[in-house]
Amino acid sequence: MEEIDFAKESTEKLLSRLEYLLSQAVPKNKDRIMSARNAGDFSDGSEYDLAKREQYEIHCEIALLREQLQKRGYTDV
């Protein structure tokens, strides 16, 4: 019976999620913020507020993933 390395598998998932956030979620969020900013209506500002909230959540998740990966010995994250 083949052994499954769950630590390696979960580390790969963390790395994959981090790569997705950095390469796709952050740029998409920046575009959303710029679109809302360019719309210029900050009196309502719901789109801008949502985009800024999403930015906060993305960066919190990135920090958490980096912390978890560093605990596993990855220093280049």
Overview of this protein structure:
- Helix content is about 80%, strand content about 0%.
- With about 80 residues, it is mainly α.
- Helix 1 runs antiparallel to helix 2.
- The two termini are about 35 Å apart.
Radius of gyration: 17 Å
> Helical amount among residues, as a percent range?
over 70%
Low-confidence stretches: none
Relative strand content: under 5%
**Silhouette:** elongated
**Total helical elements:** 2
For the residues shown, what is the average pLDDT? 89
User: Distance between the terminal alpha carbons, to the nearest Å?
Assistant: 34 Å
Question: Which structural class should the secondary elements be placed in?
Answer: mainly alpha
Query: How would you characterize the largest beta sheet?
Result: none
> Topology as H/E string?
HH
Number of strands: 0
In short:
The chain has 2 helices and no strands. It is mainly alpha-helical and 77 residues long.
Task: Name some characteristics of this structure.
77 residues, mainly alpha
List the topology elements.
Layout lengths: L5 H34 L6 H26 L6
Helix pairs in contact: 1-2
